[in-house]
């Protein structure tokens, strides 16, 4: 006869392989995302004899050579710029200046459309970034 006595089984340890795979995939994703987040937008500012240094914490809007707009590193549209300016002009105690940073190769039409959107929505404190002529080396 066969003894039907239950065996003493050890409880198996959980398989950690799927969790480790997930951790390494997330680590890889964040390392790659951080590498892309470090790079900024390289703009060549227009030259101006009236350029002076500026200090403060304005709302900064970048106009790139291809006509795209950026705010805090994110792509925005003219409509988004209008909302930013409108929200800024509504705040009484914290009405910050708006700094428009155009690329030297940006189209005049894109520049004028951006300035128009800012002015039409109450952006009367507009500052346009430029590079001083004296600082340019041939």
Helices and strands, with pairings:
Layout: H1 17-38, E1 47-48, E2 59-63, E3 69-71, E4 74-76, H2 78-90, E5 98-102, H3 108-120, E6 126-128, E7 131-132
Parallel strand pairs: 1-7, 2-5, 5-6
Antiparallel strand pairs: 2-3, 3-4
Helix pairs in contact: 2-3
How would you describe what is shown here?
The structure is a single chain. The chain has 138 residues and is of the alpha/beta class. 35% of the residues lie in helices and 17% in strands. It has a domain at 47-135: Nucleotidyltransferase, domain 5 (2-Layer Sandwich). The strands form 2 sheets. The chain has a 5-stranded mixed β-sheet with strand order 4-3-2-5-6, covered by helices on one side. Strand 3 and strand 4 (74-76) form a beta hairpin. The mean pLDDT is 78.
Element-level helix/strand string: HEEEEHEHEE
Query: Major sheet: order of its strands?
Result: 4-3-2-5-6
User: Cα-atom Rg, whole angstroms?
Assistant: 28 Å
- Relative strand content: 15-25%
